[in-house]
């Protein structure tokens, strides 16, 4: 096996904290030291010479040993290929430019298919409705809107348009938190430990919408650490209120601040 592109770098404080909360330790041999660094290299395998990448989190001792063996320096941040960064940026831009919409079409005798297309909120997916065969079309669209809210936290933002040629109906959509009617309204947040020992933050804007779950950790966790972790895992656009404790769980509110387009 031939290998190349050896690099080693120190993880960010957030990544180190993440590994600690999830019990992820050094992956070199039987070492169980704290994972504070990452090592990476590329290699070829098989008769066809397939290229693969190996990335491992390691303790300081083994990261330095990896660097010495491969005659490289351990950097303070992850080296990133400009080409890779450009490809990712281009793909994200192309996806973001897609308009958010949903298409409703009949599937079988009593089924309906909801096909989501993503946009700025990076939504995509398919939902299914099973309704009586003679359900009025208006009732089908009402059920579709309820399913979009329940499964995707998405609302319809414009009129439905019938495509008579394809036999489908389409409408523009958006994440509920991005719509003026819901923007700025507080989400209800609950932090608790589940039956498997995993601490999570559950967030819901309204009972009609899907609750979002944010895993927090399963190692060395308690309520205090779980509360401190919530602002770490949430994007910066969220503002949390004061926490109220209820035994081994806690609740608060969170407000999402939309970015204003530059004039």
In a few lines, what is going on in this structure?
This protein is of the alpha+beta class. It has three domains: 77 residues; 78 residues, no CATH class; 70 residues, no CATH class. The protein contains five helices and 16 strands.
Kindly describe this structure:
- The chain has 263 residues and is an alpha+beta fold.
- It has 3 domains: 3-79; 101-178, no CATH class; 187-256, no CATH class.
- 23% of the residues lie in helices and 36% in strands.
- The protein is built from 5 helices and 16 strands.
- It has helices at residues 13-21, 60-69, 82-96, 137-152, 223-233; strands spanning 3-10, 37-45, 50-58, 74-75, 101-107, 111-117, 125-130, 154-156, 161-163, 168-175, 187-193, 199-204, 212-217, 238-240, 244-246, 249-256.
- A hairpin with a 2-residue loop joins strand 15 and strand 16 (249-256).
